[in-house]
Amino acid sequence: MGHALCTCSRGTVTINNKRYLLIHRLGEGGFSYVDLVEGLHDGHFYALKRIICHDKDDRQDAMHEVDMHLLFDHPNILPLCAHAMVERGSKHEAWLLLPYLKRGTLWQEVEALRDKGVFMPEERILAILHGICRGLQTIHNKGYAHRDLKPTNVLLDDDDQPLLMDLGSMNHARIEVLNSRQAMVIQDWAAQRCTISYRAPELFTVERECIIDERTDIWSLGCILYCMMFGEGPYDMIFQKGDSVALAVQNHLIVPQNTRYSPALEHLLSSTMVVNPQERPYIANVICQLEAIQPTPSGQDTTRI
């Protein structure tokens, strides 16, 4: 990879001849974990993501995530500061050095508001959603789709601007399916890489002759909008109860009755969550709808639950 890395004593690592002090673990998943590190050369904090690679396919997947990051230079897409592949006995680890945003994810913000008994004001929803859409439009304009858009994959910076992250599930926006075998490959891939409660309906049962396009992200975007409006994703509770999300997403979404949000925002939500992907808007149309909605007065910022 051209990025030498070594593990050194006293809880430091060296990437590209720059030393970083290990602070503490930020989180971990099935095949990766993230540590907070401090650059000893600049005093800045970073998130060091380590992806465990058991074989060649895992290494290729990790490098794919690196390549996706390197495609973009946009304020609403998390940049990659450095990367490396290091041997760990019979295994490898891909190391991705990313900016550390102390405010955390959009999901953490939604949870915090819910715990306080307040809903997110429409003006703030519009601002955050607009930033997500700008990042997503950049991805789509490059011919790719995110495929795992959800509140835990959106970070918020100090200015409340969203940054899309976790680009490992990204692939080409347009996928042509020609037979049942290809359909099953795509369906199995989606089951592994696309979070179930934010997964578009067409990815649950892939037709043997169809085209999957970037509008899978528009469905997920709608789920994020719903989450900001109502404190949880539209299918989160269904999944938690053990009921069938695959069945639930085939039904028309019912927006909870409320007086907090404008009919225009509710219409935007409904337009993104159309079961038939061919009737779903592209991101440019979503942005047009979004920009046509007037912000709500600041006095409505803290509506109690």
From TrEMBL:
The keyword Magnesium does not apply. GO terms for molecular function: ATP binding; non-membrane spanning protein tyrosine kinase activity; protein serine/threonine kinase activity. It is a lipid-anchor. The keyword Lipid biosynthesis does not apply. GO terms for cellular component: Golgi apparatus; membrane; perinuclear region of cytoplasm. It holds the Pfam family Pkinase. Its EC number is 2.7.10.2, 2.7.11.1. SMART domains: S_TKc (SM00220). Residues 20-293 form the Protein kinase domain. It catalyses: L-threonyl-[protein] + ATP = O-phospho-L-threonyl-[protein] + ADP + H(+); L-seryl-[protein] + ATP = O-phospho-L-seryl-[protein] + ADP + H(+). Gene3D superfamilies: Phosphorylase Kinase, domain 1 (3.30.200.20), Transferase(Phosphotransferase) domain 1 (1.10.510.10). Keywords: ATP-binding, Cytoplasm, Kinase, Lipoprotein, Membrane, Myristate, Nucleotide-binding, Palmitate, Phosphoprotein, Serine/threonine-protein kinase, Transferase. It is found in: Cytoplasm, Perinuclear region; Membrane. Membrane-associated protein kinase that phosphorylates on serine and threonine residues. In vitro substrates include DRG1, ENO1 and EIF4EBP1. Also autophosphorylates. May be involved in secretory vesicle trafficking or intracellular signaling. May have a role in regulating stromal-epithelial interactions that occur during ductal morphogenesis in the mammary gland. May be involved in TGF-beta signaling. Able to autophosphorylate on Tyr residue; it is however unclear whether it has tyrosine-protein kinase toward other proteins. Monomer. Interacts with DRG1 (via its N-terminal); the interaction phosphorylates DRG1. This is Serine/threonine-protein kinase 16. It comes from Eublepharis macularius.
